[in-house]
Amino acid sequence: MHYVYILLNETKTRTYTGVADDVDKRLGEHNAGRVKSSVPYRPYKGIYTESFETLSEARQKEKFYKSATGRRRLKEMFFLSELGRSASFSFFFALPVLPPLPKTLPCPTRNVPDRTTTA
After folding, report:
1. 66 neighbors 17 (Cβ within 8 angstroms)
2. The pTM of the whole model exceeds 0.70
3. What is the layout of strands, in order, in the sheet containing 15-20?
4. Which residue from 57, 59, 61, 88 lies 20 to 30 Å from 67 (Cα-Cα)?
């Protein structure tokens, strides 16, 4: 069995997404400083795991969670619901929350000369 796991650091500013056979062992490696890319942001805690029968399925899901769409999905799943759209996480994903656009945009009128008459 293979697992996709997502870790969140203690200051809640970084996530780490990876694949492992033993998530608890891998979390220990992250917190012990044996994973180069996660050393500066330790300690971590596990916030999500998903199991897969094959390694290729797990890698595919890991790749999705590391894509822009996957990061947005993670933001919706964990951070917006738990934090009530806290502003402290806007820098983390670099995705501003914008109000929806109106369905019709007003068109400003200009003074356009009448072209129906000839001079």
Report:
1. yes
2. no
3. 15-20, 2-9, 44-52
4. 88
Q: Within a domain: residue 108?
A: no
Helix (H) or strand (E) run with residue 44 in it: strand 44-52
Q: pLDDT tens string for the chain (119 positions)?
A: 999 999 999 988 889 999 999 999 999 999 999 999 999 999 999 999 999 999 999 999 999 999 999 999 988 887 775 555 443 433 344 444 445 555 555 555 556 566 666 55
**CA distance readout (Å), 24 to 4, 9, 74, 90, 93:** 12, 15, 21, 29, 26
Rounded Cα distance, 92 and 63, in Å: 19
- Please, are residues 7 and 28 in contact by the beta-carbon 8 Å criterion? no
Do 24 and 2 lie in a common domain?
yes
Q: Are residues 2 and 48 in the same domain?
A: yes
Helix (H) and strand (E) counts for the chain?
Answer: 5, 3
